[in-house]
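I am writing to request your help with a piece of structural work I have in hand. I am sending you one protein, given as its amino acid sequence and as whole-number tokens for its backbone shapes. Kindly check, if you would, that the fold set down in the tokens agrees with what the sequence suggests. You will find the record immediately after this paragraph:
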Amino acid sequence: MDPYKVLGVPASQVKHPSDLDKVRQRAKKLYKRYASEKNKFQAKKVMEAFEMVKGNMKKIGEGAYKLLGRGRKERELDKHFNHQTKEIKKDRRVKKTLKQARKGEKRFHLPGDKERIPTFRRSKKRRRRQMQKIKKPNVDVLQGLQRLAAVLPQRTKFPKVVKLLYRWTKEYMNVDNREYIFRVLNDLTKLPFLAEDKEGRQDVICVFEYVLTYNSEWFQKDDKHRMLGRAWHMATVLFCQCFTDDAFTLSSTISKLTEAFGLIEQHKTDIDSYLEEKQRRAAKHEAKVEAAKLEAKLESKEEILDAKLEEKEELKANGKKAKLAEPVEPSASNGHVEPKQESDVEDYFGGGCDEDEDDDELSEEEECSDDDLVSDEEKKDKTKARCIDLDSDAEGGEISSDEEEESVEIESSSDPEDLEMETFVFPVPNMEESIMSMRQDFVHRCLFALFQNRGPLWARTKVDNFFQEIFYRRACLDKEQQTQVEAWQSRIKVLQKESEHKVGENNDILVANRPVVDSREMRQVVDADSNTWSAKQTFDSREKSGARHVIR
């Protein structure tokens, strides 16, 4: 029976399981019609035909076109094998033996060899319970920052720690604890290996850009704060961007550097005046220290002199008493006693009794004792200082009082700033100090990085023009920095001259710019008249004998 003829559906239209819906609808219509006609045989035939079509669809793709199927014995063996595997999985003893066989037989232990004792493995649940019981101590936000700051100066760990620092700033930094992070970042700008790692540079840029934008109001508050932000931006962000391999980033970095250099030029007078005042204060402080040392030395020497004078006076008094207590010797001529003269008394007591002579002797003794330590010039200075102190006491007092007044004025002027710096965790440096650090980082960091990375052709022109401009405006820099810029500029000029092509030497298009070496050779061959006869003979012999008697 052909099911497709019974249902009236061509077999070519039933190729996919979705086509069975049409066959089902057709079978339903035929079944209803035969049931209304009470033709049970045809109705049953329609049902069988639909089942056959359905079965044919299931056979497609599931072995319908297999030539050889599995036999009865094969199925029995499979059944037996599956049954065995189930039993093996259930049996623990068989599992144990199989596991031992997989690992290998038991080895023999020598006398000195230790046998490995299997340790008891704790279950995962027990481990979880124990881990839950042992809770890690909670680390405070500032303690975490302190730990990061302790590890930041290590060169090998720097790239990983910077990532953690960036995460700390994004998650925990706020207005209350920003002074602590400012202190860490200020130390971070002074690290020499800030831009050694490629990934670390990007993290450093992210950290400082986020901190500067988050605290933009604080950095725009005052000139000191503004210059501090500029100095940080120069030392970190611009320094890391000097290592870029992108033309647009390099051009924007150079434009920012020129703007910062203009700011340095603008504040040159302020820096010079600040340095002069700093030197004057340092000189004053040194002079005060030296004066205090001299005063201490003079006081100690005066005490020694007073002590020696007292000892001599005591000796004199004791000597006079002893002399008066001695018996008087009668004179040989008159029989009466002649008192000794003053010179004899002085010789007896070992010197004169005048205070001036004693002072001179004492000074000579002290100078002799100090000859080994003090030079002649220092002795003269000391004697001058001593004369000034002894002769003009009032003048010395006036000078010291003026110096004290000046120092008091300086201290009173700087008292509120000192108090303000003491109250804060991060003392904000002066505007001049920030500009000086910015100038230092501009030369020794940014310009050095640009000079190293001027190799590519797309970067060479930009960097060379920038160095040319800095060379012309180098007067605002320090002397050491000026010499460094001059050395870089001279090196750039030398490299440019070496790489320049000479124009005008070769204007002919047919002549190559580089000389061409021809490998071909010119040879002259001279033939005599006899060669023509021999060539003719060979040609003739070839024609006659078919190339058998060819002369070679």
